[in-house]
Every structure is written in C-alpha cells, then in structure tokens.
Amino acid sequence: MIRIILIGYMGAGKTTVGKELAKALGLTFYDLDWYISTRMRRTVKQIFDERGEEGFRRIEHNMLHEVAEFENVIISCGGGTPCFFDNMEYMNQQAETIYLKASPEVLYAHLQMGKGVRPLLLNKTPEEVQLFIREQLAEREQYYSQARHIADVNLMDNFAKIADTVADIRNMLGV
Description:
175 residues; alpha/beta; five-stranded parallel β-sheet
C-alpha cells in the first residue's frame, strides 16, 4: 500500500507533480481542494464566502481524514492544510509526506500564471501579493518543514523539469 501526500505553498506545483507522480506509479490522484468541492458541491471560494476561513478549515480537516484513509493514492493538499489542527502530525502518521519547496519569487511567478481563483489573494495588488506570500510562507515553514521529505521545485518551469522532479521524488521514496 502506497500513500503519498504533497504539501507546500499555493503555486508550488502540488497538483501538477501529484498528477504526474500518480501516472508514473499507477496510483489514484486526489487534489484535496477538488475533493472538498466535489463532496460539498461548492467551490473553495464559495465555502470561504459562506463559512469563512475557520469553517473551511474544519471541512478541510474532516475531508483530509477521509481521503488519507484511501490506499494507493497521491494526495495534494491546499497550502494551508498542514498549518491547522493536528493535520501535519496526522499526515505524517498516514503517509509519506513531501514538501514541495520553492522561493517566494518562484511562487509569485507561478501564481501569476495560474488560472484558478485563490481566495486568500483576491483584491490584492501585485506588491501586496508578494508581501503576503513572503509573510505567510515564513509563518507556514514551521509546519511544512515537518514533512518527511523535501523536494526543491524552484526550477520546475517546463515539462522536462516536472518529469525530473517526479523522478527525484521516486528516488527519494524508493518507488
């Protein structure tokens, strides 16, 4: 039985790497935010709007406990998932955890290219987004660094480098 959980800041490439890693290993991929949206029949933004961040984090915690019981899976978590409740400790008990680590500059560039709605970044200027990323990343590092493994994803800017990252993770885990 294989269970791998990817963590890291938004824009680090958790979903991209997760899908490719799952394909390479023949496992099922779950994006926790997608799983929550499907089960709640609401987007993450709608849940934030209706229940606030605290309400969303409670739902996220419960859904993490559900999906982390599945076998032969790769799970990518939202950027804040490890930082609330006992989530990081629980993930380490349930799976091989991998922190996809990137610099604030790389994260900002990835978020600029992304198409998804990021509730925590709405209505911020580019300068405010950059400051927000730096401050939040500094706060969250204490949780992210508890992962069993760390993968540097600063240079993951094309398909070949994504494949290299997946190969590095497979070597790291021996799978």
